[in-house]
Amino acid sequence: MLKLHNSLSNQLEEFKPLEENKVKMYVCGPTVYDKAHLGHARCYITWDVLYRYLRFIGYNTTYCRNVTDVDDKILKKADTQGVTPDVITKEFYQSFVNSMKSLNCLKPDVEPFATKTIGEMIAMVKKLIDNGYAYAVDGDVYFEVEKFKKYGQLSKQPIDDLMAGARVETGEKKKSPLDFALWKKDEKHGYKSPWGIGRPGWHIECSAMSKKFLGDTIDIHAGGADLTFPHHENELAQSECANGCKFVNFWLHNGFVTINKEKMSKSLNNFLTIDDLVKKYDSNAIRFFILTNHYRMPVEFNDEALNSAASGAKRLIGSVCDYKKTDVVDNSFVEEFKNAMDDDLNTSKAMAVLFSLVDKIKKEQNPQTKQTLASTLITLGEVLGFDFSLVKKEVSDVELLNMVKPLYEIFNLDEKLNAKEALDEIIKIRTDARANKDWAKSDLIRDELDKAGILLKDSKEGTTWLLK
């Protein structure tokens, strides 16, 4: 029986979907104006695991994760660079897609773009005005917070306390400092609306996209803890006031990633991009690092922890390098795994089950039993998103030479070099290309090695290679 910590009640609750065997799940996606960082990795790996687990235990799950491609930060960057906003959003959306792929995150079932859902946003804003919860002022539209008496219930902040700390920015025409923008006047980057040329506020985007693709009431809404207020609080308020019913049954939030005890964020300029991270660690190491900790707790990033995670992941994946997944599994381990995951996605306990399997595989003498245990490990490991195609195997010098041989002609290498010497020479060629900022050549070399089954890892100490 799956139990999840609901941020709204602040309690562990038994998960019951609105419809039998069906789950509607919405996760706040990226604002595509910059590269994704380790904090995003923590968020999207967490909800990727939830999605995988819901499907594993038999739920027909629809996972919707939006793309915010109209936003103040996007417009500011576009104006600064002298380009149109879509130039920025296309670049960083593709970057995000690549980052998610490198982390072995499954694609969501639905991935709506804010700019493709403007009509639904305008309709929702109209409904809020008609229902008496919003008002228009000189091209802007605001949600009137004091009309929604339950405001603050998600973030556990009474309206009086919020009012005491609120302030009105210069130029705003709000009735109350707590009121938030549903529609913003913007004649340069805007869209036609009943209130003039403008664009949606951030919060209304998610409410409209969730409603369009999942319906008025959904089972799960998830995201980072930093979104609880004001974003999720405002989503809750405007959705319930527009739709006249409960918006979300389970609100789930993952904890921060910290560096030197500070939250990782772009504003603090202490973030490590996923692109940088995967040059040094593969997806299994990164997942191992993140899943060792409970999803609601903060995670302190450091190289020592990730190096330790890389070793753990290598042991886990390497234990089944000679086996394949079959339909035959050991149900006692499956039940133990499910008991751990049913306890609010306790991934650290679930991984302990995997390592029990590692130990048992090592000791088991019967080949058939060994295969069953290995298949069980692969099956359960894939629920956590580990990629068993990244099995690292030891190969003989002859096998390595056969892998590397096609590269000799491509890079005009001396045939007298052995395989390891050839790889060192190729890395030197790539290092020189990077020093000369010949990124095309550098990428070509990485791609050719990748085809040969060899992965490059860049670090401060230099570049090393390992077998995929």
Helices and strands in order, then pairings?
Blueprint: E1 3-6, E2 11-14, E3 22-27, H1 38-56, E4 60-65, H2 72-81, H3 85-102, H4 118-130, E5 134-137, E6 140-143, H5 159-165, E7 180-185, E8 198-200, H6 202-214, E9 218-224, H7 228-243, E10 248-254, E11 257-259, E12 262-263, H8 274-280, H9 283-291, E13 299-300, H10 303-318, H11 331-342, H12 347-363, H13 367-383, H14 397-410, H15 419-435, H16 439-451, E14 454-459, E15 462-467
Parallel strand pairs: 3-4, 3-9, 9-10, 11-13
Antiparallel strand pairs: 1-2, 5-6, 6-7, 7-8, 11-12, 14-15
Radius of gyration: 25 Å
What is the terminal-to-terminal distance?
A: 38 Å
Give the rounded overall mean pLDDT: 92
Number of strands: 15
How many H/I helices? 16
Q: How large a portion of the residues is in β-strands, by DSSP E?
A: 5-15%
Strand order of the largest sheet: 4-3-9-10
Q: What characterizes the major β-sheet?
A: 4 strands, parallel
Domain module tally: 3
Low-confidence stretches: none
- The computed structural class is alpha/beta
Give the CA-based shape: globular
Question: Class of the largest domain in CATH?
Answer: Alpha Beta
Helix content estimate: 40-55%
The fourth-level CATH homologous superfamily of the largest domain is HUPs
- In CATH, the topology of the largest domain is named Rossmann fold
The CATH architecture term of the largest domain is 3-Layer(aba) Sandwich
